[in-house]
Every structure is written in structure tokens, then in C-alpha cells.
Amino acid sequence: MKLEVCSFTGYKVYPSRGRTFIRGDGRTFRFLDSKTESLFHQNKNPRKLAWTPIFRKIHRKGISEEVAKKRTRRNVKYARAIVGLSLDAINARRNEKPEARSAARAEAVAKLKAARKEEAAKKKAARTAATPQGGNQKFSKQQARGAPTKVKATTR
User: Fold this and answer.
1) Do 82 and 90 touch, CB atoms closer than 8 A?
2) Is there a contact between 46 and 55 (Cβ–Cβ < 8 Å)?
């Protein structure tokens, strides 16, 4: 037993019931009864007729039980080791006291500053070694770039 579905209302159409309409383009429409067929041919919208299931669904009519509040899934956190550190090292870092952490940070900053200062001193020494003996002459920026010297006006 094959049940059809009404093209207008969406109700089930049982065998030997309902009406069939085949449009000029070959599309077949099945209707529950002559009423639904008539409304279809009048181009009525089933969403606007209060007795159709489509209207009732859109306007939330006849919902017997209230939908229970949707449960949200809680994210479960896992502690995993990172490529460079083991899980024990990460936990040790996390459980460190703030004073110890700030002291370690200050020490690291001081070490970095000392390294930078040393590097700057090396660069300065290399620069002074590279300049010739008569390096005390002062040049303007234009002279350093090789610009021609300005000629003084002789007439006036």
C-alpha cells in the first residue's frame, strides 16, 4: 500500500482517495479532496490557511510537550606535553611562586641587556678599527654622498 502526499496540505492520501492533476508541463499534483484542489487552482497559499499543517508548524500550534532546554557540552581540558617541554616541567612552571617567576624574568632580562651591550661594544670597536687614521675630518651629509661643492657667486 503506497501512500501519496497531498501537494497542497501535506496530509497523507490513501489509495483510491483524492484527486490527481497533471499540469501542462507534465508535473503531477495529488490532492486530498476537491477542496484542496480548488484552493490550489485559486493560487491560495497553504501557509496562510489556519487549518493546514504547514500553517500550524510555522505558528507553533499544538506542540504538546515543551522542548527541553538544550544541554550544552562542556569542553574537557586535557594537559598535554609540548614539543620542547615535558608535562612535569609545565606543571612545575605553573606551580611556581610569582616571586620566583619575577626573579627569573629579571635575571633573564639582565643577561640579555649585558649581551646586547657587549655586542654593541664589539661593533663600535670594529667601526673604529675600520676608519683611517685621519678620520677626525667632519663632512656634511652632501659631501659624504659625493655631491658637488657649491660655487660662490663672483658677480654682484
Assistant:
1) yes
2) yes
Give the number of domains in the chain.
Answer: 1
Q: Which residues does residue 4 pair with via DSSP β-bridges, in sequence order? A: 13
Q: Which domain covers residue 21, as residue numbers?
A: 4-44
**Dihedral, 50, 56, 60, 62 alpha carbons, nearest 10:** 100
In tens, the pLDDT along 24-52 reads 999 999 999 999 999 999 999 999 999 99
User: Number of C-alpha atoms within 13 angstroms, CB side, residue 51?
Assistant: 5
Q: How far apart are CA 78 and CA 14, in angstroms?
A: 57
Q: pLDDT averaged over the chain? A: 86
CATH number at residue 32: 2.30.170.20
Q: How far apart are the C-alpha atoms of 30 and 74, rounded to whole Å? A: 48
